[in-house]
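Re: beginner question about structure tokens

> Can someone show what the tokenized structure looks like for a real chain? I only ever see the sequence side.

Sure, here's an example I had lying around. Input first:
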Amino acid sequence: MSDIAAATPHLSSGPIMTTRHFAVIGAGAGGLCAAKNLLARGIEVTIFEVGTRIGGLWVYNNDSGLSPAYRSLHINSEAKVSSFIDFPFEPGTPLYPNAARMERYFRDYAEHFRLTSRIRFSSRVKAIVPDGSGYRLDIEDGSSHRFDGVVVATGHQSVPRHPPQVQGFAGTYLHAHSYREPELFAGQRVLVIGPGNSGVDIAADVCSVTAMTWLSARSPVLIMPRLMFGMPQSRILMKLERPFLPWSVRLWIRTKLTRMFHGQMEQLGFRTPKGRTHPISHPTLISMLAWDRVRAKPGIDWVEGRVVHFVDGTSEEIDTIIACTGYLTALPFLPEGTSPVRESYLHLYNRVVSPLLPNLFFIGFFDVTGGSNIRMMDDQAEYIAAIVAGAIKLPAPAAMEQAIMADKAFQESMFPGTPRYALELDPVRYRKLLAKDYDRNGVQHTRPAPVERALLRESAA
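And the corresponding structure tokens:
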């Protein structure tokens, strides 16, 4: 008998499993809502968590070693539309909660849906091995356990992608994944590479103690204000960006609004994007640029010792480089030849289903273009649970392959062809794709697609 059944009283202690039993790898946002939705469909669940805390990447100083959370981290989307659909934040939660509040929120979610007792902490999964009609999970402690299926919720922000341009740098180098607080860099000349969400956060954070901070942006970027006219910018965009508007018009709206509050990106040393990019906003970075605590730089050309040369011909002597250059997706526990990772893109049907291995699912491997990652994971979890329960019948493998290639073609046509955008996901289009499978199987939707718009409209009223 599996020691899981013996150690957890809610599982059957008999030698024959009377219900299907799934493993969920990871006790972060994706793993928790996957487990909750599977349980709601009558599927037994055991969650394997490598660390000792609930919350995944939102846990500051997580002993899993996988979290990139820094002390000043806050969510980027408004709290009202960033919670699980059936578990809102408690009254009094700030518009943009910090990492500590997020960790507490996930703990509360796990307790509310009775998930905590199903978590095996300090349990790193070494291998997922096909075993008859199911899978065997080999754990680092030497134990093995068999399941009918697996949901992988390990996240995609734990293996840093390092920029080749910094090779040979003689100063201190670290990736954003290792950044925690600014005090270590007091009095230094610091270069932050990459104007993404973590890049603008860290530049605005560390500049409070440095002698000077530079922010290097190789590509165009539109840094929008977090608040507009006294309210979150998402509510303003909801009023202006009607669903029927093409992306070019939406970009024009965003650019004009940003210019009203921040001026032109070129005035700050950046370039205004002409095409679709991942949305960036920050409450204080523009002020730091105006106060000359942060200076903008273009991409790096080459490095000589501690001198960094930029593509515009300028150079600066740098003490520390902090690379906010994204992550590699690593799934080392999968059987050889079955990983869905194709360079940076994941070869998965509707971003969750492996065409090669039945009953192996993935959740949370995306970056949302506007909207909440947590709310989108909720949609994925409900979709996975419907498939496992048999409510949704998947297309034939050939049809799934065709759909995957169509999704990849859309990705390449809409977003820049860089690794940063390989996991980008348009929430409106994606929910329509999921809805097709619900409709094809005659399954009633349990939540409407435009959830964020409805909630934001309610907030703005």
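Each token stands for a local structural state, so reading them left to right follows the chain. The longest strand covers residues 125-131.
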